[in-house]
Design goal:
This protein has four helices and nine strands. The chain has 139 residues and is an alpha+beta fold. The chain starts with a strand and ends with a helix.
């Protein structure tokens, strides 16, 4: 099995796509006005309209109602992201006990987003292992 994406359901696809394009510094690929994807090396962030929910199961997802998931992106420099991003910051860049320098903020729908940089040797080692695993294909 391969983890490929996280999908955010929103009532304003264009607004959320524009926000994540700024966060990731990359353009989205639009399938139509109800669905866009932002691809990274490790996974894809999909953003879809509430109009897509009934295609799966009516009422199964509600926009701006996440209280348990944090979307995370590894970046080269957390402090630079903090300086250059205008967002609803939950904290300032902080080095966590497990060795990542981390910045937590909310997207326009209130979803928690964490950008982090491994800064200790142990955290950098875990990041290298994760990157190597991404390059392997399942049998």
């Amino acid at each position: 099995m391969e983890f490929v994406s996280i999908r955010i359901i929103t009532s304003d696809v264009a607004r959320l796509v524009e926000f994540y394009e700024r966060v990731l510094g990359a353009p989205a690929t639009w399938a139509n006005e109800d669905f866009a994807e932002l691809r990274t090396a490790g996974a894809t962030l999909a953003i879809a309209s509430t109009r897509t929910v009934p295609l799966f199961a009516p009422g199964a997802a509600r926009p701006a109602d996440n209280h348990s998931v944090i979307i995370e992106f590894r970046v080269d420099d957390v402090d630079l992201v903090y300086e250059n991003l205008s967002a609803d910051f939950v904290n300032e860049p902080t080095t966590m006990p497990w060795g990542n320098r981390s910045l937590l903020f909310r997207d326009p729908d209130g979803n928690l987003v964490n950008v982090f940089t491994p800064v200790t040797p142990a955290a950098q080692g875990r990041a290298s292992t994760s990157s190597a695993m991404l390059r392997r294909r399942p049998v």
